[in-house]
Amino acid sequence: MDIPLIQSVGVVVFNGNNILLVEHGKEATHLTGVYGLPSGKIEPGEEAIDAAVRELREETGLVTTSSDLIPLPKVYRATIEQKDGVKVFDWHVFVCKKYSGNLRETDETKPFWISVDELITLTLLPNVQEAITESRNL
User: d(Cα 48, Cα 107) in Å, to the nearest integer?
Assistant: First the structure.
């Protein structure tokens, strides 16, 4: 059986030596207790950069604009087990250079800041560590 390829976006946000992550909760499609960048699916007809702006706001409460996002040159691919089965994602990642607003939880995600050095203590979704590392070079 072929697994459909899902186009998705992620956003890397730094605050000094801290990185913004989200913890996936009971209502999320990702497995409960895994961590990732603010991310989500690209809607039909939506540009990847516009999806990144939307997903950052929806998952964290932070607001940015497309002019404040820099795309990473690589598209990451991963096969990820979710609550409703295994899916394959192409993940277009953007680095957020400017944002406003305050963090807020949703039914699906709990955003928080964590030191880059503490990332190794968490169960991260595939490609998160690599995207963060590549983002630090921009």
Answer: 24
